[in-house]
Amino acid sequence: MTAPLDISPASCTQRPILRERGQREVFCGLTGIVWLHRKMQDAFFLIVGSRTCAHLMQSAAGVMIFAEPRFATAIIEERDLAGMADANEELDKTVKRLLARRPDIKLLFLVGSCPSEVIKLDLSRAAARLSKAYAPKVRILNYSGSGIETTFTQGEDACLASMVPELPAEASPEPSLLVVGALADVVEDQFKRLFEQLGIDRVRFFPSGSADDLPAVGPNTRFLLAQPFLGDTARLLEGRGAKRLPALFPLGVEGTAGFFKAAADAWNIDADKFDSVIEMPRARAEKALERYRDALAGKSIFFFPDSQLEVPLARFLSREIGMTLTEVGTPYLHMEHLDRELTLMPDGVRLSEGQDVDKQLDRCRAERPDISVCGLGLANPLEAEGLTTKWAIELVFTPIQGFEQAGDLAELFARPMNRRMRLAV
């Protein structure tokens, strides 16, 4: 039986929020390994789960021909579930074989899953025990990638949160900036250049590409969230004394400008200098967006809750592309982190938090939007009903942050519209 419908006001915007609790349709947090293992070059992700977990990761990551992937699954067999084997002993053997085979591993994550949580396998204790055995060569941490109560992007949040206690203490009295959230290398390089041009030279990114190159954090650290789904990581960084800079998320021209403006204001950068630094990349981004406005302006869009990127994406599509928002659903609304995004949302749009997938499908069918952003499990059925869809997960896998990627972000929404038009002909 589903929970009763709850509509309550958002404290920061006084907007009504439709809160639903029912059947959900999302990937689990294990999916985050797909982009995290590419970012952290000497890390390895050992999933402690079932064969289903292994099949999920193989499907999500695709076939890798030229490089051995840095993730695997320690399979929980029937004898483990029945208590006929010592799960910790089996795990120790698996880790020993893995580290012998892959001496390049410097950071090993034991990633929990639904099966390991069902049998109450304490991976935190296992990680502490194994880390002591293999230190200092290998650091072993753990986090949960289970999808029982979370959505798939929260796997990154759990992973980064597990690393926060390992970050060294900030020793310098000078303020430093930490950009939090896994970004593609090309985006990170672009951000570095813009920060340097602004005169902000003590900038680090978390996660970094190496386990030996962890950013320091302390009371003089200011941080920007590059992703809206990093609530636990932000809370732990604040617990270390770091201060979050409220900002828009760097999607589109407006979001990217707001993202850098938050850092510029914190460093007392002159407004004229700020404008001069971002003038050229902003102009390129504006020009890149022009080619997609004719195709997308006035078109309606419906967001199913999936990645927690929905609110900043909706802000971008509405304000910069001219699309009409019918419903913006998201798995979780972190009101403090999304405050600036929500104040820019147009009046009248339905905001929903959580999911009751049957009810949302009914609303989507009634609206008949020009495009629906949803998970893979809903895309094919909706397409079969004549609705155009966009895979939400592609928006996480693709570099979309920053000025230079603004056109690419718009193209991701124009592409399915163009496909539908060609098929109709």
Q: What do you see in this structure?
A:
The protein is α/β, with parallel strands linked by helices and 425 residues long. The chain folds into 3 domains: 6-25 and 279-424, Nitrogenase molybdenum iron protein domain (Rossmann fold, 3-Layer(aba) Sandwich), CATH 3.40.50.1980; 29-150, Rossmann fold (3-Layer(aba) Sandwich), CATH 3.40.50.1980; 176-275, Nitrogenase molybdenum iron protein domain (Rossmann fold, 3-Layer(aba) Sandwich). Helix content is 44%, strand content 17%. The protein is built from 17 helices and 15 strands. The chain has helices spanning 33-39, 51-61, 78-81, 87-101, 114-118, 123-134, 154-163, 185-198, 231-239, 252-266, 271-296, 310-321, 339-342, 357-367, 376-384, 394-397, 406-424, and strands at 6-9, 16-21, 43-49, 71-75, 107-112, 139-144, 176-180, 203-206, 221-225, 243-244, 300-303, 324-330, 350-355, 371-374, 389-391. The strands form 3 sheets. It has a 7-stranded mixed sheet, sandwiched between helices. A 4-stranded parallel sheet has the order 4-3-5-6, with helices on both faces. A 4-stranded parallel sheet has the order 8-7-9-10, with helices on both faces. Helix 11 packs parallel to helix 17. The radius of gyration is 22 Å and the shape is globular. The protein starts with 5 loop residues before the first strand and ends with a helix. Mean pLDDT is 90; it is low at 1-12.
